[in-house]
Amino acid sequence: MQKHFRWSSSSLGWVLAILGGLFATDIPATDWLQWRGPTSDNHAQQDWTLPLRWNVQTGQNIQWKTAIDGRGHSTPIFVGDWIYLTTHDPSADVQALVRLDRNTGRILNKWAIHRNVGPIQMHSNNSGASPSPASDGQHVYVSFHNRNAIHVTAVTLQGRQVWQRRVCDFAPQAFEFGYGASPIIEGELLIVAAEFDGDDSGIYALDLDTGKPVWKIERPINLNFASAIVAPIAGERLLVIAGAETMDAYDPVTGQRRWSVPTTTEAICGTIVWDDRRLLISGGNPTPGTWCINAAGEHRELWSNRVMCYEQSLLANNGYVYAVADSGVAYCWRTHDGREMWKERLFGGGISASPLLVGDELLVASERGEVYVLAANPDRFEMRAQNQTGESIFASPVAVDDTLYIRSGIQEDGKRQEYLIAISEKP
C-alpha cells in the first residue's frame, strides 16, 4: 500500500518557523498534537514561562475565555494556528469537534461527528467527550463512545471527513462508567485502547490513511480505563499500559507482547509514566496503590505503596515522581527506591486532571477549579501560587508557547457553562 509522507511534530515545527521568517507571519512556534504532548509525558517545553497568578473575574493575565457548548474532559490539541477539542452536547444530541483560532480563541467551526447519539451510560464525573484528539499535522483523529461501540473518525484540518470506523463493541456490564482512553499516533498507526468486560476488549491499531485494522492486542475481559502510551523505555520504543493486575509492554509496530509484570490492580485510569528504566502507575480499584517496576533486564516490581491516584496520572521528572492523591495530598517519591521525599495536603479531595510540568513548576488542577503552582523540587515542598479558575476542572491543563490552557466549568443561570481559557503574560 502506498503511503503519504507525514510531517512529524518536529519537522512541521521547522517548516513553520522557516515560513514565518520568509513571510513574516505570526505562526505559533510549537504544536501539541495528542494526549500528554510531544514527548508523551505531560512535560511542556523547558524554556516556556507562565504567570504565577491570574484572575478570571478581573481578567488578570487572561488572554481570552471562550464558551464551549456541551461538556467534555478531553484536552485540546494545537496544530499550527488552530486549536481542536471535542465536546458532547446532550441538548443537541451531538458529539462534535470544535476548531478555534489559537491567537484569539474565536470558534471557527463546530463539526458534528455523530448525530442522534442518544443516552450514554457513564459515571457522573465522566463525559461523552473524554478522549483527547490526536493529529499527524494533516488530519485530526477523534474517538467517541456511543451506541455501545467505540467509533474513530479522521477529518482534514478543515473538517472534511476522510474516514470513519466502528472499532469495536464497548458495552461494560459490571460498571457502566463510560469511556475515556485517548487515541495516540505512532508512525503510520492510530492506536486505540478499549478495555472492558466483553469479548472485544483489546488495543487496536488502525491505518492512519484508511482506518483499516492493522493489528489487535487481546486484552483481559476486565474493566479498565487507561490510555496506552508509546515511550522510549530502556533504549527502545514500547507501547505500555497497566491494568488487569499487570503492567504490559508491546511492540508498537506489530502489537506483539514484549513482557508482562504481575503488579498493580484490576482497574487503572491513569497513563504510565517512566524514568528511563522504571515505569510507574497509580490506581485504586479494588486495591489502592502506586507501583513502580523495572523495565530492563529482570522485569519485576521494585516498590509500591498504598497511595491512590485513580483518575489522574503521575508525573515523572529527573529521577523523581510527583503525585496528587484522590485525598488532595501531594507527594514526591524517589523513583529508584520509592523513598518519600515530601508530602503536603493541597485541598480536601477531588481530582481528575493530571499534573503538568512547565519549566521547574508543577501545575495541579482540582475538580473544584483550584489550580496550584508547585515547585518541581524533590528536596522540599514549595507552594508558589493558588488560582481559582472557574468552579470545576476535569480536563488536564495544557501549556503551549508560553500560554496555559484550562478547560473549566462555571455555573451560569443555574447550569454549568464550559469555557476554554488562555492564560499568559503576553501583551
Automatic annotation (TrEMBL):
InterPro entries the UniProt entry points to: PQQ_rpt_dom, Quinoprotein_ADH-like_sf, WD40/YVTN_repeat-like_dom_sf
Alphabetized SUPFAM superfamilies for the sequence: Quinoprotein alcohol dehydrogenase-like
Domain Pyrrolo-quinoline quinone repeat residues, every copy: 57-172, 181-343
Signal peptide region: none
One Pfam family from the record: PQQ_2
PANTHER family the UniProt entry points to: CELL SURFACE PROTEIN (PTHR34512), OUTER MEMBRANE PROTEIN ASSEMBLY FACTOR BAMB (PTHR34512:SF30)
Protein name: Outer membrane biogenesis protein BamB
